[in-house]
Specification:
Maf protein; about 35% helix; alpha+beta
């Protein structure tokens, strides 16, 4: 038995990661309010939005595996989302220059009325750079649709001194976490496809 896979995101990075796994999927972005809720911890916020995205699209495709994900960048007590404009992107990058920040990526999978979710937290340290370097990076256009105003997989790799944790979570989709959620819902990744687990296997994976 085959299962359809839907990505509830317009992020090309998340799509790229699913493509790297050889999975066939469709893209259907979730139309939800992504505003930060002040009383929530960053990890809770990322997981909440991931779940809302998966459920929103999952309501239209209940038999599919629907993947929702959300990424936020936290430095000190500041939560950095996507930049409003180029000046805002430069400001974010100056804030991150020479310091360590955390990336919180929530992922959720909805299937047959169930939702499983998790959060991956990664520490990233930027090298120190002048404003002119930040401006030159922003001029490439790469940072404008990314939390924290950088993409680790592109030109933004020139900003990163080191990371502690899942590189793919910084890209926007923690791969191993996602595959684990598939297993909790009864489906195992099989190098290019998804195979339905026996009921006892699925039960073990969910524990």
């Amino acid at each position: 038995m085959a299962v359809s896979l839907v990505l509830a995101s317009r992020s090309p990075r998340r799509a790229e990661l699913l493509e790297r796994l050889g999975l066939d999927f469709t893209i259907e972005p979730a139309d939800i309010d992504e505003s930060f809720v002040d009383h929530l911890m960053p990890s809770d916020h990322a997981e909440r939005l991931a779940r809302e995205k998966a459920v929103y699209v999952g309501n239209e495709h209940p038999e599919a595996l629907v993947v929702g994900s959300d990424t936020i960048v936290v430095v000190g007590r500041d939560v950095l989302g996507k930049p409003r404009d180029e000046e805002d992107a430069v400001r974010m990058l100056e804030r991150l220059s020479g310091s360590e920040h955390e990336v919180h990526t929530g992922v959720a999978v909805a299937h047959l009325g169930r939702v499983e979710s998790a959060v991956e937290r990664v520490r990233v340290r930027f090298r120190r750079f002048p404003r002119s370097f930040a401006e030159a990076y922003v001029a490439t256009g790469e940072p404008m649709d990314k939390a924290g105003a950088y993409g680790i997989q592109g030109y933004g790799s020139a900003l990163v001194e080191r990371i502690e944790g899942d590189y793919f979570a910084v890209m926007g989709l923690p791969v191993v976490r996602t595959l684990t959620l598939f297993e909790r819902l009864g489906w195992r990744y099989d190098f290019g496809g998804l195979v339905e687990l026996e009921k006892d296997e699925a039960g073990s994976a969910g524990r």
